Amino acid sequence: MKLSTVVITASVLSAASAHGGVGQYITGSTTYKGWEPYNSPSGQSSIQRQYSTFDPILVAGLSTVNIRCNNAGTLGTGPIGQVAAGGAIKAHWTQWTHRPASVLVYMAKCPSSGCNGWDGSGKVWFKIDHQGLVSGTQNAGKWAGDTILDTLNWTSTIPASLQPGDYLVRHELIAVHQANNPQCSSGTASPPNSYLVSFPGAYSASDPGIDFNIDSEAAKVATTYPIPGPSVWSGGSGGGQEPAPTTTASPSTTFVTSMTPTSAPTSPPTCTAAKYDQCGGKGFGGCTTCAAGLTCKSNGEYYSQCL
């Protein structure tokens, strides 16, 4: 089965930041190179769609086309990857995003003309994987984003019954670390209409998992988190399931990836950054001083965070 992958690594937040991007896609013994957003596009060839920045999409971006693939006008970059239905796709990030975050993975079947000239519009996206709060409380527990911070990897399984064809696969990270911030085989099956969503359109700023305050009193005792978007489609005709975050399967996939940007923080440089806020990095113009008791720690050339 051929798949075209539009991979979005983004945080959909108001005044927040999830900085990072998928740099490799691994299917079985094959590794596909991701796009390099800060290098010239000249000579680059990737299964991932072009994107220009590690900056995340803010709440205002929920209604823009950038939420699909992190770049409003640029479509495919050429090659695609291969993966068998029932196989696994491992996304490897080049640098860290944010620790308290949920991870969501979507797919969309491309038209007969292929993925490179298609913008992913319409009610065509279905979710194959997601994980939010893993254990403990919302405020102090372990989140799916901890896995990416610790390993820089996230592995998802393609539904075994999925109809053959070219697909976009979309990886999304929703950082939840700030208060009050809404934040692309064999088989014959296709997901029912009830599992399909469009981007933009899948999320609302008032969704519980978007309009979320991790520092609220309720978050200090809540042990579940409402992951935004539709239920996971696992390949059957019944209800969705939440698959395990990793898998040992190792086939191969076809991708055209793209990542999700967002507006950069606009806090004045004289302000004080709170816990989990960005406090530095290449091109950053916001607060560089952390609140009392916190330290500005670097997570790569483009991002530092108050911890």
Shape type: globular
Q: Give the class-level CATH name of the largest domain.
A: Mainly Beta
**Strands of the largest sheet, in order across it?**
4-3-7-12
Low-confidence stretches: 1-18, 178-187, 238-269
Arithmetic mean pLDDT: 73
What is the CA-based Rg, rounded? 18 Å
What can you see in these coordinates?
By secondary structure, the protein is mainly β. It contains two helices and 20 strands. The protein has helices at 66-69, 144-151, and strands at residues 2-3, 12-13, 22-27, 30-33, 57-58, 81-82, 88-93, 101-109, 125-131, 133-135, 142-143, 153-157, 167-175, 181-182, 211-212, 272-273, 278-280, 289-290, 296-298, 304-306. The protein has a four-stranded antiparallel β-sheet. Strands 9-8-13 form a three-stranded antiparallel β-sheet, with helices on one face. A three-stranded antiparallel β-sheet has the order 17-20-19, with no helix packed on it. Strand 10 (133-135) and strand 11 (142-143) form a beta hairpin. The longest helix is centred in the middle third of the chain and has 8 residues, at 144-151. Residues 1-18 form the signal peptide. It holds the Pfam family CBM_1.
